[in-house]
Amino acid sequence: MISGESKHWPGRATDPAFSLSGKPYDGGLLRRWRFTLTRADALAWLRLTHPFPRRATGLACLVIGAAVALLPPGLTGPWGSPRFLAFLLAPVLALLLATWAWREWRLASLSRAVLPVPRPGLFEDWGDSLALTPVDDTEETFLALDRITGLAMTRRHLVILSALGPHLVPLSAFAPGEALTVRQDIGRRIPLDAQARHP
Fold first, then answer.
1. Do residues 32 and 122 touch, judged by C-beta distance below 8 A?
2. pLDDT by residue (tens digit) across 27-36?
3. What's the predicted TM-score (pTM) here?
4. Which domain holds residue 75?
C-alpha cells in the first residue's frame, strides 16, 4: 500500500482497468476514504452482478398464460371473468414469488462465500483515476476515468460503473452529504465519450 504523500502508484499503468490508449496516468492522491466491507455490501454487489432473470421469467409467464387459455371454459370460467383471471394470476404470482425467494436465498448464500468476514476497504481519488477495494477481492482495483461508464447512488452505496462491472463504496465512508458532492465532482471529470466507447 502506498503512502498518501507519494505521487505514483506502481502498477497502475499496467492494470487492466486502464484504457489501452497508451495515455500516461500520473495523477496525485487527492482524497482517501476508509470503510469496512460487510456481508450486506457483498449482497448488494451480487444483486447488481446477478440481475433478476426477467427474460426467462417473462417467458415462463407466457407459457402459463397459454396453458390457462387452453383449459376448458367450464373449469376456468369465461375469458376475462374473475375466475379466469384467478386461474391466470395465481400461478404467475406464485412463480414470481418463488423466483424472487430462490434468487434472494442463492445470493445470500453466495455473499457468505464472497465476503465471509468483514474486512477493511479503501476508496481513493487520484485525480486522473480512482482506486478502491472491490467486494470480491482484497487487492485494489484501479479505474482510469475514461473507463467509468456511470455513477449512481443507492440508499447505502455510491455505485461506480465500469467496463469491469459495478464497484460499491458504502455511504458510511463519507461525511453526511459528502457522497453526493464526490459523485458530482467525479462525474464532471469523466470524459464525455466514455459511455459511448464503453457501453
1. yes
2. 677 889 999 9
3. 0.68
4. 49-114
